[in-house]
Structure formats: C-alpha cells, structure tokens
Write a structure and sequence with these properties.
Layout (H helix, E strand, L loop, with lengths): L1 E3 L4 H9 L5 E2 L14 H20 L7 E12 L2 E3 L5 H11 L3 E14 L2 E15 L5 H9 L22 E3 L2 H5 L3 H11 L5
Parallel strand pairs: 1-2, 1-3
Antiparallel strand pairs: 3-4, 3-5, 5-6, 6-7
C-alpha cells in the first residue's frame, strides 16, 4: 500500500496521472530551517521527517506492509529559501526577486518502506530544476498576486498556471517545479521496496 504524506493537490494529481493508487495522510512537522542549513539539505530533511512521521502512525497497529512517500519543495533565489508567501506583500517581494533572473527549484523526496517484522528502510533524494523568469513590471506582479494563485505556492508562483507567461526556459524536470519529480519518485519507490523472500 502507498501513502502520500502531502496535502498538495498538485502532488495528488501528478501521482494519479502516473498511475499510482494511494491514500493521503498529512504529516504535521516543524518546517523551520535549521540555522545555516543549505536549501537542498533542508528540503530532503523535511521530506524524510514527513515520511517518517506518517510511518510512525502505522508502525504498531498494522499488519500490512506500507510505503510512505513525502516531498517538500522550495525556491532558492539570491541565496534565499523562498517557501510559501506569508501575505500579499511577501508574495510581491518574492516575485520581484525572481523577475528577470534564473532561480533553482528544489524538491526533496523520500520513501519509507515498513511492515510487520520488517526493518524500515528510507531512501531520499533532491531534484533541482533551474527556472528563468522574464522581467515583470510592478503592475504585472500586483495583478498576478491579486489572482490569489501565488499565495499557497513555494516562491509565490505556479509554473502550470498564470505565471507560465513569464517563464521562457527551464533546465531540468518540469514536474519538479509543479511539486513532484515523478520520474525520480518512480525510481525511489522501486528502490525502497523490500523484495519478498
């Protein structure tokens, strides 16, 4: 059985499109970066902690084997980790920082296998995509923020939404920018499965 430890509708949709059957359980963890923590280490740590938190909810009460999949995405621009904006002004600040520049989108993914009489196994990785934005005017930024789309997105934009008009180029996995690097996830899920004897 596969459990997705994420409330993200975009991750749900991508996993379904890739042909997976799964249930959803949201992990409640502290997502504050550690002092001096690099962005790649941060998203990988959060993905592992989310997967292990959901795993812990089932460890003592189930007799079936499970795989828990978790992910965490951040945008990194000018050395800053950009999560979801806290308010409208924060969204505008983030978009101004991205305007006319190339930034990195990093997604940490983790898969944990566990079951009765099976030692749990965790595999994690980080996928990085470079995204280039055209210059955005202050009016364009304000109009985009007014749509509401940026408010629950890391880096204050959705590549699959209205923001596509300002993104002429990416280098790497498009689905990583949406929130779940499907090809890498498939490999992780294959690797974490414990072969049956």
């Amino acid at each position: 059985m596969l459990i997705l430890a994420s409330a993200s509708p975009r991750r749900h949709e991508l996993l379904k499109q890739a042909g997976f059957d799964f249930t959803v359980e949201v992990a409640n963890i502290n997502e504050t970066p550690l002092e001096g923590e690099a962005a790649a280490a941060y998203v990988q740590r959060l993905a592992v902690e989310k997967a292990q938190a959901v795993c812990g909810l089932h460890r003592d009460k189930e007799t079936e084997s499970y795989v828990v999949l978790a992910a965490d995405t951040c945008v990194v621009a000018d050395g800053q980790i950009l999560g979801k904006p806290t308010d409208i002004m924060d969204a505008r600040r983030m978009l101004a920082l991205l305007s006319g520049r190339t930034h990195a989108v990093m997604t940490g993914v983790a898969a944990v296998f566990f079951g009765p009489e099976v030692k749990s196994r965790t595999i994690a990785d980080v996928v990085i995509t470079q995204v280039t934005f055209d210059l955005m005017s202050e009016q364009e930024i304000a109009s985009y923020v007014a749509t509401g789309e940026p408010m629950d997105k890391a880096g204050a934009y959705a590549i699959q939404g209205y923001a596509a008009r300002w993104i002429p180029r990416i280098e790497g996995d498009y689905f990583n920018v949406v929130g779940l690097p499907i090809a890498r996830v498939v490999h992780l899920l294959d690797q974490v499965q414990v072969p049956e004897e």
